Model the fold of this input.
Amino acid sequence: MYTSIFLRRRTIASAAVPQLLTFLRHMGGGPRTFPGGLNKWQWKRMHEKKAKEKEKKLLEQEKQLYQARIRSQIRSKLSQPDPTSQHDPNLPNYKPLSPQDHIKALADRFMKEGAEDLWNEADGPIKSQSAQSQLSKKELTSSPIDVGKLISGSRNLASNIGSSACSGSNNLSNLLKPRHYSVVASHGRIKTSPRLNYRRKESSSSDDDSDDSDVVVGTSGENGRRGRVVSNGRHLLDEEGEEGGRGSVRRMVSSAALGKYDRTIKKRVPLRDVEDEDDLSLHVQAIRSEFNKRRDETVGANGDEESILSQKRFDQCSVSPLTVKALTAAGYVQMTRVQEATMSAYLEGQDAFVKAKTGTGKSAAFLIPAIETVLKALSSKPVQRVPPVYVLILCPTRELASQIAAEANVMIKYHDGIGVQTLVGGTRFKVDQKRLESDPCQIIVATPGRLLDHVENKSGISVRLMGLKLLIVDEADHLLDLGFRRDMEKIVDCLPRQKQSLLFSATIPKEVRRISQLVLKREHAYIDTVGVGCLETHAKVNQSYLVAPHEEHFQIVHHLLKEHTSQVLDYKVILFCTTAMMTSLMYSLLHEMKLNVREIHSKKSPLYRTRVSDEFRESKLLILVTSDVSARGMNYPDVTLVVQVGIPCDREQYIHRLGRTGREGKGGEGVLLLAPWEAHFLDEIKDLPLNKASLPHLDPAMKVQIKGLMTKIDTSLKEAAYHAWLGYYNSNREIGRDKTTLVELANGFCESMGLQTPPSLFRKTALKMGLKGIPGIRIRK
Ligand SMILES: Nc1ncnc2c1ncn2[C@@H]1O[C@H](COP(=O)(O)OP(=O)(O)OP(=O)(O)O)[C@@H](O)[C@H]1O
Done:
């Protein structure tokens, strides 16, 4: 319809053509062929491929840079001072390292905060061929590395913890005391005194988790908070060259002074290849386990690892009295640790990437700065007819957006003239527009897709966004992931450059940390209230897993739920399934089995989802069967059990789903149910404390009953579940690789649903999924 209207208007100004094309494309139309005679999908795929390659290249470059930095750091340690020059006793003496010292230096690096992020097993140890020949095994095994000594050598790290905490031989245990949080600020260039220069050289073997090579040059902090001023490694070398110690630094990085060690550092060998030459990897392993052991001991002794609250109250920070009043009314008196840390970064005007465990109050951590921003902007500017949007909060789902807006409304209860609105999919575009016009607001909580609709359709929001002061991205790792990244890029492009940005998540994979500069300024703070090497899940949540044949899953789920609901008085359970259709199928079955269940997934209407979500928030004695729409951010109080059926899409999703229980420092339980061919996922979460649960005894009568109940479920739902199942596992890297096995497993799943023959696929779909011609796949005629 829109196409014909536009085509009838013959005199389209040439300047409007690109806009028209964008509009048509947005409406699902647009040109049928693209340059090179490609169709829309080929064109799209080509661009996706290009983007992937570009990203891969960037990562590769980053890795090379990182390796180059390590090489230059080690070279500087190995280079010899000029024998003719008088050595200043206050400066470190850079003698060639003995092989043993070399290992210690590497281990030092390994123990640094963030180093674990960069050092993964695939990188393997740095293998020294010539140096290793000198380094006899006897030498290594006869003098085991003293971890305490190693750590005491890493003064940089110890200095982060504060001078009082790093004295004597207790460095390791001090270091491992439950940390409140760490703040790493990245600064481009830092002018330093000669003293600082010295310390920078001293710490040149250190590393951090950012893509910048963060080098410690100073400390600050109170209440256990540690601040570090860091500098980009590349700048560091340039800068030192410019300043006092120019000559010596130039000498330090000169390849002429490298000797045999230069060659040894270049060669990295995968860990597998050197496993039997156990030297370095064994030592690193030993240090790692010692590190974990001491941390566990320290945490055990202090016991407050799980406390989410800080020492500060809201009225002690620069929070407006009316907000404090509203917070107090809502029962918030003391700040949580993430709230305190975020507030101080916000007040300093810094951009920040904030990592804090699930259920520790991240929403309030960004809503309080949001309200302060609006108050500040309102006080400095006269009232405007159409007020600018001062704060934009982006989050992945509509439920989460509604939840955040509801929490914001509680906090602005006593502030007249501040408004919050949501822009989420599933509502009518025109209704959104009317709402924005009739009820102007300064804070918008939006999902990226719907916000982009408004921006691209010039609903007036773009102009209002030009006044933006604060951008907040909740579940940032998810929004910066491939699924949302394009939208995020477009949104960021149309926001003003002069603004503060705060990113939040309970998990921050290193790839996301790298690309966070899409949103954050280069000089941003990295606040980690979890702590490097600490558990990302809550210790009070008991986690277990079960590996059982796929066809038994329905019965096992029923058994687990029955057991839990009969044992826990005020039970409240969330059951995660892999896809929307699997969720629907599981719900239908459990409903037939007379369990008190509700369902939420993307195929349900927004109204229904909101109703069920509200009901589940308020109630007890209820089981919510859901897809991943409820995995992140949803705050359902007092969930007693989280069951995850099937492999989660990644480690992060496992953590976020589990995080629906054990909120606000409470306890909870999590069970992961996998089929034997999904068990490889356990490797991804091997650092988390999951116990293997024993398989329950399954009642054969119940098996028959389930089979009977399955026949009552609509065949079209089972067919949809089969298609969704195939799609989900086909996109799993491990399982989707072997298409024949995949189809066999899918057909097994079909049988467990009581379908005699596997449902057919459209030829196009089968082709796209790479399943055409695979035995067992039926193609629709
Ligand atoms: N200062 C506080 N004092 C008491 N309770 C608080 C405080 N801050 C937050 N809470 C409560 O903690 C719970 C979890 O908060 P919130 O949903 O913000 O967690 P989150 O860190 O965003 O979790 P997720 O990672 O799952 O998104 C909520 O019930 C909230 O009311």
User: Anything to note?
Assistant: The longest helix spans residues 40-78.
